[in-house]
Amino acid sequence: MPEAHFRFYEELNDFLPVDRRRQEFRVFFEETRSVKHLIESVGVPHTEVEIILANGESVGFDYLVRDGDFVSVYPVFELLDVRSLVRDAPLRDTRFLADAHLAGLARRLRMAGFDTVVADAEADAALVRRAVAEGRILLTRDLELLKHRELTHGLYVRALKPLEQFREVLLRLDLAASMRPFTRCTVCNGAVDDVEAAAVADRVPDAVRARHARFARCGGCGRVYWEGSHWRRMREVLARAASA
Ligand SMILES: [Zn+2]
Fold this sequence. Notes:
Ubiquitin-like (UB roll), binds zinc ion, 21% strand, 4-stranded parallel sheet, 12 strands, single chain, 3 domains
């Protein structure tokens, strides 16, 4: 049976069983297979892969693996697709679709100004279609989801806690400089704009209006934000995350 030698680098090893990590191992295949297929067959989602070398030469996902090939697979340090997305469009257009388990991460991304939708209990295929149609980066801890062929922008979130997940996404996509804090509603993802204090008189207690000068309102749900203690706490959270 034809066989190829694979070695995975850096954090791609997280996806492999312990006895295959950081070392060369053999993969057998009966029919001719693309390198993408074989990479996913050992458990590594293609969206995590950036560079593939076959016998020392850079190849694409479509490369058909031959008997005896040596294949080296490197992770996404910064997603190429995401970089081009960011380069060609204003930075605020870095949009996310978080799966239903990542609502805490989604709130923090909104806090930082990133347009982030949380998926309902949509079927996987529908989720993938939506991410592609709306130009959103799919955030998930579900490896199967990232293996969908049509998916172009996806990120496997490794951390378990929302704040650490937030730091991870900022770091891996190099987004710290693109944050626009307090421009988006953390509850509904609507755009938040500054408003005069008088305009929110009916939504804000008098005592709050007396003490604060800056107010902003969500164009989606109407929620009013002001620069109070909550706002300061959020600022601290963002600053800590960005400097991590
Ligand atoms: Zn809102």
